[in-house]
Amino acid sequence: MPNSSAEAFEDGVDLQIGLLQAHVPQDQTSWTGYPFPRLQVSKEQEMRTFRTIILENPFLRATVLPGMGGRIASLHDKRTNTELLRRHPLLEPQAGGRRGAFVREGIQIVLDGEERLNAMGNMACQIEHATEESEDAAVWLAETHTGCGLSFHARISMPHDRAELRIEVRVLNRWLRPQSYDAGLRFYLGEGELEGRAFYSRSRKAGVALFSEQVFDGARVDGEFLEYTRFGTPREIAPRQVDNWVVRILPISGLPCVGGASSEAAASIDEGVLRVQVSEQKLGHKLLLLTVDGKTLEAPVDLYPENILEIPLGDLRPVEVALRSPAKKDILRFSALGAATPGSSLHAVEGARLTFAMSNDDLLRASFEAGSRHVAHTMLGIKALREKRFAAAGGAFEQALNYNADDHLLWWGKAMAARLGEEDNEAELLNAHYLAPLEPALRAESYLSQPLNLDPEPSRLLAPLAENPEEFIEVACLLIEAGLFDQASRWIDEALRHREMAMLRYLMAYCLLTATKLNAEASEQIRLAVQSSLAPPFPYRDVERDAITLLASTFPEDPHLRVLNGWVGERSNGVPE
Q1: Confidence band (pLDDT; 50, 70, 90) for 421?
Q2: Of the candidates 68, 162, 351, 490, which lies 20 to 30 Å from 484 by C-alpha distance?
Q3: Is the per-residue pLDDT at 462 higher than 80?
Q4: How many Å apart are CA 237 and CA 445, to the nearest integer?
Q5: How far apart are CA 295 and CA 289, in angstroms?
Q6: What is the mean pLDDT of residues 133-161?
Q7: What is the pLDDT of residues 476-511, one digit of tens each?
Q8: 208 pairs with which residues across the strands?
């Protein structure tokens, strides 16, 4: 057996890629890719170097492209020297999709059953190295700028001793209203078919089997894609609801077909030969065959992941096959007459529609309802922050955490309330970092907790956010939503040292008008914003909508605000007030 260890490291790859043209649609209200620009396939190509994160053990190698939406671009089965994903010499965008063009290659995370709007954009990432030989190697990916209220953290890991890839995803509805949701994975595997839990291409002798402790009802083939989603059709995820799910990907290759698959092995019977491929070493096991005449035959076997076990059956025609461990547990069992596809069911999530316009008494009444209590306590906490009642805010967030402990923004809110109330917040920050280490609000809290620095140079602490500058806007909106205009103004002032963005100027003007009534200073921010062209990212968050609406009424002569106000006005239905 090869030396058993896993490693994660950064590398680069040169890919010939078809170029795209971006432009802003005239009718933003009906544009399905809003707030991103429309993409159009061009005939031009160029060789481009992409940053890659490699996860590798003795049996499997995965290549992640953070700059292409965090997709897994390659999954190479080293046991048989087989690429499991369908790959093309040219990374060629295809016409279609919500933004007008998409790239089909790889394994992608989806949030609502369709390709994400940022599926070709950059993602925050962080390597998690294995410090000991027996540990997994992993990479964290995170995305907050999704064009909707959903964000996610994903941990892609590879164990040291078996052929398996594990994808753990924590999706958060950041908004205080329900969102369309059907998260999962989208695989570009080329031709093939579902065979039980496995999708397999007999012509390429390559595929995957998928396993999860959560219910995934949405396994289906769509052309050359395999969709593996939670529901199969979009449903609602409630305000601030967190959905955690894990998918284990078992690579399968070198078999003529797949008769059965488990999270530890796959097998086939073809032309009188039984073949078994395991994901990790299996010693002292037994292979059992049930024949058509009711007899059970068994044989001791030792199996190794780097070799496919082949057993000629001769005249035997088994009806059932099992691989049994020394503990007498069947790690693989399938019908030789055809595998059954497991069924499952999942109930829809009903989101609570609460608003900030509700009185505290009404929110307290809503807190007794199982489906809305965490949202009600969250809103009570935010309202307390707006009123500078920091102890009360911390208490409300604590109540919300009793029902929604995986919401890292709740931990952040509680930490911020503690800091502003001059209390220790270390435990809250540790919990938030554990749940979502790349959340930009946590980096903002680290910056805002420091003494005011009059140094004109940008803070090095916030330099990583400049790679995804929309996160500056995301944090500003969170602070404004909490009514912390002084904190938001300080944040925006620092963000503008890193990246000049028109939306940051508009949000600063909104803070000045709302908190201080300094119209002249707000007018100066509008003047500076107008110097930038009307370009993405366009406003889509609730706070951005409120800011644009107020600014457009205060500065009606501004042409950019008139356009933006028209766009956001069409998108305001169902927004909490």
Answers
A1: very high
A2: 351
A3: yes
A4: 27
A5: 8
A6: 94
A7: 999 999 999 999 999 999 999 999 999 999 999 999
A8: 199, 251
Q: What does each C-alpha distance from 231 to 172, 243, 296, 309, 348 come to in angstroms?
A: 17, 13, 39, 36, 9
Q: Which of 141, 226, 230 is nearest to 186 (CA)?
A: 226
Fold type of domain 8-253 = Beta-galactosidase; Chain A, domain 5 (2.70.98)
Q: What is the pLDDT of residue 137?
A: 95
Q: Any idea what DSSP says for residue 516?
A: I
As a whole number of angstroms, the distance between CA 501 and CA 477 comes to 14
Length of the chain: 577
Cis, bond preceding 536 (omega within 30 deg of 0): no
292, two tokens:
């058509």
Average pLDDT over residues 48-61: 95
**CA-wise closest residue to 145 among 463, 432, 490, 475:** 475
Residue 480: Cβ within 10 Å count: 26
Q: How far, in Å, CA of 474 to CA of 32, rounded?
A: 21
Topology alike, domains 8-253 and 260-335: no
| Annotated domain spans of the chain | 8-253, 260-335, 352-436, 438-577
pLDDT in tens, 215-249: 888 888 988 899 999 999 999 999 999 999 999 99
Rounded CA separation 279/547 (Å): 54
For residue 217, the number of C-alpha atoms closer than 13 Å in the C-beta half-sphere is: 11
> What is 260-335's CATH number?
2.60.40
CB atoms within 10 A of CB 148: 20
CA Rg value for the chain: 27
Beta strand 90-91 pairing with 7-23: parallel
The predicted pLDDT at position 466 comes to: 87
Split at pLDDT 50, 70, 90, the class of 345 is very low
pTM for the full predicted model: 0.86
At 270, list the tokens.
């073809």
Question: Residue 359: phi, psi to the nearest 5?
Answer: -70, 160
Q: How far apart are the first and last CA of the chain?
A: 62
**If you average pLDDT over residues 59-84, what whole number do you get?**
96
pLDDT(371) > 90: no
* H or E segment to which residue 548 belongs: helix 542-554
| Number of CB atoms found within 10 A of residue 547's CB | 27
Report helix angle 408-420 to 440-448, nearest 10. 10
Surface-to-core class of residue 299, CB atoms within 10 Å of its CB (0-12 exposed, 13-18 middle, 19+ buried): exposed
